[in-house]
């Protein structure tokens, strides 16, 4: 297991929180707070007196408030906060169960040191799930082919990938597009299979093992490279997924067929059942 993977096994809030936090003062007016929200991508701010968190003001709190009223008269002062050493899973539970989007992070003295959002929590889950997936695939390759493997993290040109899935579904591409635009996309999983010839000018094949919908969504967005966990095989092996790709006529991601949702096999099966009943 790599050092990066072991570090992610027990993640804390401090590893994912935003440290540079925009705040408002309890003595600021509602109008000033509204202007701050309009000038930013935030939907609310921690309210701090010095460095101490005394409340939170959200756009909802400001909707019906008098524009000249001080923030402390309309802010929420009974708020949930997190500690930087708090397990990210515990922070996720708090965020999901409370329905809030952001938790101010305070130290033992109650001073604001960061903020953790539902987006940060999602990112933490992604970063732990992918290494587990990669480790399982590495062990499988080593057991089946009797080769040694190593793991790398790098940006991969999409044009260099050999896909192993002949089709993707259009409806799923929308979800992957949403993730990509918000920086939430899971890294690809790629197998670097060296050349059978051993010639230096032949770099081998970058086999896309996981992430076909992400790749196609990225391709549609004009993205040329993506973050990937790369499993590097020490010596060339004949991969079953590579043989399957060749049989399907797949040479690049442009050969992947995008299927309309109406042609999804599960939908077709449901329609067939309905027709049989009629």
UniProtKB/TrEMBL annotation:
Keywords on this record?
CBS domain
Q: Where is the CBS domain?
A: 17-74, 75-132
List the InterPro entries: CBS_dom (IPR000644), CBS_dom_sf (IPR046342), Diverse_CBS-Domain (IPR051257), ParB/Sulfiredoxin_sf (IPR036086), ParB_N (IPR003115), UCP004699_CBS/ParB (IPR016427)
Q: Which SMART domains match?
A: CBS, ParB
A Pfam family matched in the record = CBS
Keyword set includes Nucleotide-binding: no
Gene3D superfamilies on file? CBS-domain (3.10.580.10), Conserved hypothetical protein from pyrococcus furiosus pfu- 392566-001, ParB domain (3.90.1530.10)
In which domain of life is the source organism classified? Archaea
| Entry keyword annotation includes Protein biosynthesis | no
Name the UniProt record assigns to this protein: CBS domain-containing protein
Organism, as annotated: Halobaculum roseum
